[in-house]
């Protein structure tokens, strides 16, 4: 089941955010994610968030700022079960186009987004991590 984020979800969502960022981005020091934890916790509720629930437990979420996907995160134990795709399809329902940034070294994420209709439209360097990242876009009907 997918529903809108509620304030009471914040601690669970943040735990997934931290754990999955550290696991997916082994090329970035975990201290980077830990150092950004409080900032993300404060700003996250200002975005449009949908959570995926199994047996009354949040196992994943997607965050949006307008047409920009801030991230899709699925708890490790629930990955590869279609949850990320379901969350992505949820936000595609109400948009004609979507954009996101993904690190070049995050091969799994790039493959996931390509499989779901996104294309790489540009490449730049993240000023905070000094890692190369791609901007990927999706347009309805393409």
Set out the fold topology:
Layout: E1 2-4, H1 10-24, H2 30-43, E2 48-54, E3 57-65, E4 68-74, H3 83-92, E5 97-103, H4 107-115, E6 119-125, E7 132-139
Antiparallel strand pairs: 1-2, 2-3, 3-4, 5-7, 6-7
Please give a structural write-up.
- The strands form two sheets. The chain has a four-stranded antiparallel beta sheet with strand order 1-2-3-4, with helices on both faces. A three-stranded antiparallel beta sheet has the order 5-7-6, with helices on one face.
- The chain is of the alpha+beta class and 142 residues long.
- It has one domain (2-139): Aminopeptidase, CATH 3.40.630.
- The two termini are 27 Å apart.
- Helices cover 34% and strands 34% of the residues.
- It is globular.
- The mean pLDDT is 92.
Encode the helix/strand succession as letters: EHHEEEHEHEE
Alpha-beta content class: alpha+beta
In spatial order, strands of the major sheet run 1-2-3-4
> What is the CATH topology classification name?
Aminopeptidase
Largest sheet: 4 strands, antiparallel
- How many structurally independent domains? 1
The total count of strands amounts to 7
Q: In percent terms, what proportion of residues is strand?
A: 25-35%
CATH architecture: 3-Layer(aba) Sandwich
Q: End-to-end span in angstroms? A: 27 Å
CATH class: Alpha Beta
Anisotropy-based shape: globular
The average pLDDT is 92
């Amino acid at each position: 089941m997918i529903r809108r984020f509620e304030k009471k979800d914040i601690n669970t969502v943040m735990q997934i955010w931290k754990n999955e960022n550290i696991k997916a981005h082994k090329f970035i020091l975990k201290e980077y994610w830990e150092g950004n934890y409080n900032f993300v916790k404060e700003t996250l509720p200002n975005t449009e968030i949908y959570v995926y629930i199994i047996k009354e437990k949040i196992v994943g979420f997607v965050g949006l700022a307008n047409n920009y996907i801030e991230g899709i995160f699925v708890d490790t134990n629930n990955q590869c079960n279609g949850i990320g795709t379901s969350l992505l399809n949820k936000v595609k329902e109400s948009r004609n186009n979507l954009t996101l940034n993904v690190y070049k070294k995050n091969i799994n994420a790039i493959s996931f987004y390509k499989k779901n209709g996104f294309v790489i439209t540009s490449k730049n360097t993240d000023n905070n991590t000094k890692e190369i990242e791609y901007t990927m876009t999706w347009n309805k009907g393409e």
